[in-house]
Specification:
The complex is a heterodimer of chains A (300) and B (96).
Chain A: H1 4-8, H2 16-30, H3 39-55, H4 58-65, H5 83-86, H6 108-121, E1 128-134, H7 136-141, E2 143-148, E3 154-159, E4 168-171, E5 187-193, E6 199-202, E7 205-213, H8 214-219, E8 221-225, E9 232-236, E10 245-248, E11 263-270, H9 277-284, H10 287-291
Helix pairs in contact in A: 2-3
Chain B: H1 5-11, H2 16-24, E1 31-32, E2 37-38, H3 41-56, H4 61-92
Classes of the chains: A alpha+beta (300), B mainly alpha (96).
């Protein structure tokens, strides 16, 4: 890169005010949006802005003057310029009225202006974006949700079973109206699944923590378990511990390619809230319970 | 692809009041409804241009209006010229 002082056309001793003045003058001349179509102006503007970025920062300028940094690497990250969008056909800003007087009679120019006017008059409608909170069970099982839209109407949104947060549903033709014979845009609905009180989801599997009584844990038995499609009976084996996980096949979320995930039921043994004299008496005299050390693995 | 008002403010680094003023001046013309305006990437780039004019090039408000209006006419002209050239090329091609 060239010397930044040279680019801005200022002396090494120039004041910040001089540098700014010179930058403004050059930026006005080379700003890409004021020179649409000129590649060389865009290049020159880039050079001028990085030179200004370097010299308008007292610290960077001093380091450059001492030779600690060079002029490169000061490139300014730049957004796209307006000119890159300005000639899109369905543009609201572009104004073709300035030379309508050219279009007299039936020549090629008049025809092109007519076609442009028609394209503008029949521009397709914009897509509209919405965010839709969905209950956990509706997301797992699927369903239909009504979504209120800003113009006062409602949209019926069909939720496919198994949808996840972040997925976007496209409702064709439910966006903004088109102009003339232009097609309406689409409604794009981004789904946000609300958490559930006791179900959690991991991929296609449902996880749930199931409290069981001490008797159920020791003796085993049939217990009711909630699943997204309603409660089912599950057999708890004899001597089941807290943390043991049982799998209910096919009770999870519907898979893309067919079939369902599983529900994983993690058992949690619960004592009754109030102390029980009979249980205390049993535990006090229970030798096997005393000799078992569940914390053995934690000893170093 | 449209952008909501909130996302637009964030991506164009504008505050609420500035956006309202620019829309009132018709420097920016969002699509959608008044309650739920919809912006595009072109609006973000146009906002960056307005900011450059105002803060980098020190153009005053009436000047910005004039520049934008002339620029919009230049772009209309450029587009028409491009259409005209394309049309002429297509007409010439069949004969070689």
């Amino acid at each position: 890169m060239r010397d930044p002082y040279e680019i801005l056309g200022v002396e090494k001793s120039a004041s910040l005010e001089d540098i700014r003045k010179s930058y403004r003058k050059l930026a006005k001349k080379f700003h890409p949006d004021l020179n649409p179509g000129s590649k060389s102006a865009e290049e020159q503007f880039k050079e001028v802005s990085s030179a200004y970025d370097l010299l308008s920062d007292a610290d960077k300028r001093a380091r450059f003057d001492r030779g600690e940094i060079d002029a490169a690497g000061a490139e300014r990250p730049r957004q796209r310029f307006y000119k890159d969008f300005a000639e899109d056909s369905d543009h609201v800003y572009t104004d073709a009225s300035g030379y309508e007087d050219f279009a007299t009679g039936d020549d090629l120019f008049a025809e092109i202006l007519r076609r442009q006017a028609q394209a503008r008059a029949n521009a397709p409608g914009p897509d509209m974006h919405y965010r839709l909170p969905v209950d956990f069970l509706d997301a797992v099982n699927g369903g239909t949700i009504r979504l209120g839209v800003p113009d006062g109407g409602t949209l019926e949104v069909k939720i496919p079973a198994g949808i996840e947060t972040g997925q976007v549903l496209r409702l064709r033709g439910k966006g903004g109206p088109g102009r003339g014979t232009g097609k309406p845009g689409d409604a794009l609905v981004e789904v946000e699944v609300r958490p559930h009180r006791f179900f959690a989801r991991e991929g296609d599997d449902i996880h749930v923590e199931l409290p069981i009584t001490l008797s159920e844990a020791v003796l085993g038995g049939e217990v009711p378990v909630p699943t997204p499609t309603g409660p089912v009976m599950m057999r708890v084996p004899k001597n089941s511990n807290t943390g043991a996980t049982l799998r209910l096949r096919g009770k999870g979320v519907r898979r893309h390619g067919g079939g369902h995930g599983d529900e994983l039921v993690r058992l949690k043994v619960m004592l009754p809230p109030a102390p029980d004299p009979e249980l205390e008496k049993f535990a006090a005299g229970w030798q096997a319970g005393k000799s078992y050390d569940p914390r053995r693995e934690m000893q170093s | 692809m449209t952008i909501t008002r909130q996302e637009f403010l964030l991506r164009a680094s504008l505050d609420d009041g500035t956006l309202e003023a620019w829309v009132a001046e018709e420097w920016l013309i969002p699509g959608g409804s008044t309650a739920e305006p919809a912006f595009t990437d072109a609006d973000i780039a146009r906002a960056a241009l307005i900011r450059d004019l105002k803060h980098e090039l020190d153009v005053n408000d009436p000047g910005i209006g004039v520049i934008l209006s002339l620029l919009d006419q230049v772009h209309g002209l450029r587009r028409t010229l491009a259409d005209l050239l394309r049309d002429m090329r297509e007409r010439r091609e069949p004969n070689g």
